[in-house]
Amino acid sequence: MKRWQLVASFGAFALLGTWWAAQGSAAAPQASPPAAPAAASPAPQRAVLVTGASSGIGRKTTELLAANGFFVYAGARKEADLAELGKLANVQPIELDVTKQEQIDEAVQTVRDGGRGLWGLINNAGVAVLGPLIELRESDLDFQLDANVYGPYRMTQAFAPLLIESKGRVATTGSISGIVTWAMGGAYTMSKHAVEAFSDTLAAELAPFGVQVSLIDPGNYKSEIMANMRQRLLDSGYASKGSRYERMMELLLASPTDRDQYKEPDEVAQAFLAAMSAEKPKRRYLVVPNQAEAATTIKAALARVVQLNADQPYTYDRDALVKLLDEALAAR
User: Fold this and answer.
1) How far apart (Å, rounded) are the C-alpha atoms in residues 286 and 193?
2) What is the pLDDT of residues 250-292, one digit of tens each?
3) Is 172 helix (H, G, I), strand (E, B) or coil?
4) Domain 47-289 coded CATH 2.40.33.20
């Protein structure tokens, strides 16, 4: 069994300030009238790179950022998707697979050559692998973590110098599956729980350099992620026959994958816009389409608190827990 290690290495950057002394000079008796002040230069257009921009959350976010004054480097893998992205104003498509280091390095060079710097990185590209953990192939787990965990790690490490230079932003697509868990979703929920830890750690490590980190945790919205998951299972020759979970997997594979029953992810794109635009962006943005998903997520988080607190030597009573909650609410 492979051991997964996520080792992030960021160079130490000194924060240098320069003090400018204003100097004046006495005007000559017959000096010409002072020239009118030059018009202020327009603020440079901020650039953001979005991975997984071909459809769903990534496409909506790309469109919204571009429409709100940002220049967007839109990462996608397929030529047809790159061509469509290239039709959008304020958007430059980049061939980018977050599992391929050489394409990431080329993307860094493209951004540097663009001369705009980089204000924001949105780690959105991701995949879903479903199946029972005790039967899941190691290659499927590798595929899941390579895109959803190592992808943001590779991208953030590669673009960290540009983001530190701009004192910019990093925002990553998490999921309510980074808080809740569900049968057959072990690999996917493992990856999204890892993204939660990745983002919190990254926030602490980049704060000294003025870079702010956010995590966008969407619920169920319309996307192609499930259709892609199903197709990959079929292409790899997966068969549910003989599985201890045969019935569950048959139902899963037979269920609709177009997700037409869900809303378009416009609200998720709005959260990314806020993370890129707000003076003080939130650490977490929970974005769900209904009250039920919000309740499920918050209850799951609270259930862990209850489980951790139960029957241990330093347990808190109800009043003490309420006090801790009040303190957390006051500090946010």
Assistant:
1) 14
2) 887 777 666 677 899 999 999 999 999 999 999 999 999 999 9
3) strand
4) no
Catalytic residue among 188, 245, 262, 314: 188
Does residue 245 have an active-site annotation? Answer: no
Residue 134 DSSP code: T
Residue with tokens 């994958």: 257
Residues 6+ apart with CB under 8 A from 274: 281, 282, 285
Q: What is the pLDDT of residue 290?
A: 95
Q: Find out whether 70 and 117 touch, Cβ atoms under 8 Å.
A: no
- CA 124, 129, 134: angle at the middle one, nearest 5? 140
Establish how many alpha carbons lie within 13 A of residue 84's alpha carbon, considering only the half-sphere containing its beta carbon.
Answer: 13
Interatomic CA distance for residues 297 and 176, integer angstroms: 6
Q: CATH 3.40.50.720 in the chain, residues?
A: 47-289
Phi, psi at 198, each rounded to 5°: -55, -50
Categorise residue 120: left if φ over 0, alpha if ψ from -120 to 50, beta otherwise.
beta
Find the length of the chain.
Answer: 332
* Residue linked to tokens 């973590």: 145
Indicate whether 101 pLDDT > 80: yes
- Does the pTM exceed 0.90? no
